[in-house]
Design brief:
The chain is α/β, with parallel strands linked by helices. The chain has 6 helices and 5 strands. The protein has a 5-stranded mixed beta sheet with strand order 1-2-3-5-4. Helix 1 links the parallel strand 2 and strand 3. The protein is elongated.
Length: 205
């Protein structure tokens, strides 16, 4: 097998006009991990994955149903005066999208993303839901891991003024929210993800 593993940093941040600097029919497998909701044009990414796969090749994708840090971020923002609203995750998952579509974008619904993969030419599309937990020894450890990161991700949906208003208070609010829920014990974070596989037809269109 000849495999390409892609992510946002690999060059799949595509506009309608951009393409990967790779030849057609090059790979037997392409894997894209949790990048769908972070791409300005995921539909172009699906098309490019199809283009660089050989006939009969396999594509593997993952996308979130539940982000482990999301609920704790909501609780933290509720403690910050005049903080912007954090949209529900299905809505938040459209934050990075730059391409307009007639229908609502629903990356947390298998029927939607499976249909978009088929639109790109794939067949034998299958989805499995997987869940796991990660654990952190204390609220302080969790904040060290996720504090700056989650603030940066959420900031993509905010104005510059909103980011400046929240930033000085967010980590303290996050720590307080976690202490209220977990005390001095470990912090448990639950994640749920869809794992999608699809195949290029034996004869490409």
């Amino acid at each position: 097998p000849i495999c390409l593993q892609t992510s946002k940093c690999h060059g799949l941040v595509l506009t309608l006009e951009q393409k990967l600097d790779l030849p057609d029919d090059q790979f037997t497998h392409v894997i894209m991990s949790f990048a769908i909701v972070g791409l300005p044009n995921p539909y172009a990414a699906f098309s490019e994955i199809y283009r660089v796969l050989r006939p009969g090749g396999t594509c593997g994708l993952t996308t979130w149903k539940l982000l482990g840090w999301f609920t704790y971020a909501e609780a933290a923002l509720a403690r910050v005066p005049d903080a912007p609203r954090l949209a529900p995750f299905p809505e938040f998952s459209r934050t990075f999208l730059k391409v307009e579509r007639a229908e609502p974008v629903r990356w947390t619904e298998p029927e939607y993303f499976e249909a978009r993969v088929r639109d790109a030419g794939f067949e034998n599309v299958r989805t499995e839901l997987h869940s796991c937990e990660t654990r952190y020894a204390s609220a302080e450890e969790y904040v060290r891991v996720f504090g700056v990161f989650t603030l940066g991700v959420m900031g993509h949906a905010w104005t510059e003024e909103e980011r400046a208003r929240v930033a000085p208070h967010y980590e303290g609010a996050l720590l307080a929210a976690l202490k209220e829920q977990f005390g001095d014990g470990e912090v448990v974070v639950r994640w749920e993800a869809y794992c999608i596989t699809a195949q290029v037809p034996a004869i490409k269109a």
